[in-house]
Amino acid sequence: MSPVNGLHHVTAISSSAQGNVDFFGKHLGLRLVKKTVNFDDPGTYHLYFADEVGTPGSVLTFFPWAGVPSGRAGTGEAGLTQFAVPRGTLDFWKARLEAAAAAPVIDETVFEERRLRSQDPDGFAFALVESDDGRPGWASNGIGADAAVKGFRGVTLTLAETDATKALLTGLMGYSETERDGNLTRLVSPDAAAGVVDLLHAPDQRPAGQGAGRVHHIAFRVADRQEQAAVRETLMAEGFQVTPQIDRNYFFAIYFRSPDGVLFEVATDEPGFATDEPVATLGEALKLPDQHEHLRPLLEKRLPELVV
Fold first, then answer.
1. pLDDT class for 192, splitting at 50, 70, 90?
2. Is the peptide bond before 271 cis (omega within 30 degrees of 0)?
3. What is the tens place of the pLDDT at every residue in 281-291?
4. What are the structural domains of the chain?
5. Which helix (H) or strand (E) element contains residue 170?
6. Of the chain's two ends, which shows fewer C-beta atoms within 10 Å, N or C?
7. CB-based burial of residue 91 (10 Å sphere; 0-12 exposed, 13-18 middle, 19+ buried)?
8. Average pLDDT over residues 177-199
């Protein structure tokens, strides 16, 4: 099958749509590239933050369910989302995160990469990793192009057992093991900017519980529906229960569970986020899937107005 090309997006649960805009838009400097609704729960926003155009590998999305209880960290989840930032900018980012009253900002080195680890107000755990990443990022809100977040570096999966997920990623999805340090194993997708998946072996932790601050699923990247169909066919031949290809307006998606319980998606680069609004005004207007367009008058009254 055609191997995946690193990450496409990460989707998490939050308790406040405006809180997402304030933290990830204003403090982290990501661009709100799409303001739409949850396909299965249209009374809830689905917000997409990314670089200027929503390049796959830079897209962080949220289901902001107001009042949802906090989730519980544990096994069977993506416990840490890693972003790439330019080398020499961590002092800038540490001061910025501390000024934003983020959770404690921890300076650490993992696999010889210096990074800052912190959390948003909901407890969503992230790291800013120094990298030679050549992607342009999005300069805004006092963050220059020389410091802007480039996109994802990768994710860390917290697992009770790691062997089966490692076999899936290396045997079927094109990843290779590059390093190991104690209970942490690094897998890398060749030639992918957002290509890191770290496996954290944590057999003594309890299972994660979904809620605010937890990652709902991670999506891997393929070019188009033909490559996605090949991935689906191979996964199903190996016994995985995989959904049909689903049209998500800005990409096509298939979903399945990893052997250790993490919800995986494989998403296409096509057609992208500028299909229903120009790049210059991405994220400004509420965009609805066709099946929910008849609800627009109701949704425009129900959904909270966002100050971007």
1. confident
2. yes
3. 999 999 999 99
4. 7-302 (3.10.180.10)
5. helix 163-171
6. C
7. exposed
8. 95
